[in-house]
Amino acid sequence: MNAVLDVAEIRQxxxxxxxxxxxxxxxxxxxxxxxxxxxxxxxxxxxxxxSRYRNTPELVRVGESHWETHDDDGSTNEAALEEYLRRxxxxxxxxxxxxxxxxxxxxQLWLMLEKEFGLERARIVDREMFAGIGRVFPEGxxxxxxxxxxxxxxxxxxxxxxxxxxxxANIYLRAPEVGGELQIWNxxxxxxxxxxxxxxxxxxxxxxxxxxxxxxxxxxxPGDLVVIDATALHGVAKQIKGTRIGLSCFLGVRNGRPWVxxx
Length: 263
Ligand SMILES: O=C(O)CCC(=O)C(=O)O
Ligand SMILES: [Fe+2]
Description:
Elements: E1 2-6, H1 12-19, E2 23-28, H2 34-45, E3 51-52, E4 60-62, H3 78-99, H4 105-117, E5 119-121, E6 123-124, E7 127-128, E8 133-137, E9 143-146, H5 150-153, H6 159-162, E10 165-174, E11 178-179, E12 182-184, H7 191-197, E13 216-218, E14 225-229, E15 234-236, E16 239-241, E17 244-253, E18 259-262
Parallel strand pairs: 1-2, 5-18
Antiparallel strand pairs: 2-14, 3-4, 4-8, 6-7, 8-17, 9-15, 10-14, 10-17, 11-16, 12-13, 12-15, 17-18
Bound molecules: 2-oxoglutaric acid (AKG) and fe (ii) ion.
């Protein structure tokens, strides 16, 4: 398997190779200039609404994620879901405003994908989901190995069953001086495997001592766009020195129909 496919724009053939497991990541280097990326990252890091994930308190973010509408037992917290849907547009506009005077790199991504594949906001019944979270990984934090699958993470949502693939797109705005690499395994674990590797005290992650070393360790750089298959096992190495900031969303591939995006 090739580690990383460097491209100028995301095209169907790149997505096919990602989903086939022929490459671990597709990257557009300098998707935005490094200078712009760092400015936007600083603006997000100062944002008034920067706050901890409701159910993953070591991470802080601007925006929200559907994942936070779960309680620890995996059941949907209806009040949190209502709040997530109610605030979706407002928070997306906040992130746009935080990028000004620059175009939001997320809008740039979504316009590129819309032209190539068609793209819509994912919906829950008739309400659009939030898309495009700004994530800050403070020094010392990491993301344990995990995967992301809408059919599991939002049980009861028919969209999960409509997807031909689920990708995760990350646009990096700031990289720590040491650490913070994106780690990818050539593994698409089953739910049984994930359950048997579950880390003590973590609602989402696997115990690193129970899985092999990652197959690909990708240093991230401000301005780079990296797209992976979200159903492959992936994680983020500890920020040893410095902070890591990025913008992130999921992309649902629907062959023959517009893709969907959400966070
Ligand atoms: O921040 C990253 O590099 C990846 C984060 C992640 O787990 C995801 O986007 O699904
Ligand atoms: Fe993930």
